[in-house]
Amino acid sequence: MNADRARALLDELDRAVERRLGHLTDDAESLRHDRADATADDEHDPEGSTLSGEWAQVDALARAARGERDEIRAARERVASGTFGVCEVCGRPIADARLEARPTARRCITCAA
C-alpha cells in the first residue's frame, strides 16, 4: 500500500474516532448533569440501569477510543518513517487487504494469529 493511501485511510479512521469521542464526551456531560440532579435516585430505580453503570460504560468506550487514537498516531509515525505495512515481528510486508481492513495493523496475518 502506498503512503498516500495509508494516510487517507488513517485520516478517515481518525475522523471516525474523533466523532465517537465527541459523542462520548457529550454523553459523559449528560451523565454528570444527571448525577448532579439531587432528585435522581438511580440506585433504587427499578426501571433500568444506574447512572453509575452508564458512567462506567461511557468511560470504558472512551478509553477504548483513546487507545484507538493512539494506534492511529503510531501508524502515522510508521508511514512517516517508511515502516508502515511491515510486520513488526517477521519483517515481511503486511498484505494490502489487511491494511485496508485494519490500517493500524502492526503484524501480518500469520504473526497476528
Write structural notes for this entry.
The structure is a single chain. With 113 residues, this protein is mainly alpha-helical. It contains four helices and no strands. The chain has helices at residues 3-36, 51-81, 96-101, 109-112. It starts with a helix and ends with a helix.
Write the SSE topology.
Elements: H1 3-36, H2 51-81, H3 96-101, H4 109-112
Helix pairs in contact: 1-2
Question: What's the quick description here?
Answer:
Helix content is 66%, strand content 0%. The chain has 113 residues and is mostly helical.
Query: How widely separated are the two ends?
Result: 21 Å
Radius of gyration, in Å, reads 20 Å
* Strand proportion: under 5%
Strand-and-helix sequence, N→C?
Answer: HHHH
Roughly what percent helix? 55-70%
Mean pLDDT: 89
Number of helices: 4
Let me know the number of strands: 0
Return residue spans where pLDDT drops below 50 for at least 5 consecutive residues: none
Structural class category: mainly alpha
Instruction: Tell me the overall shape.
Output: elongated
Largest sheet: none
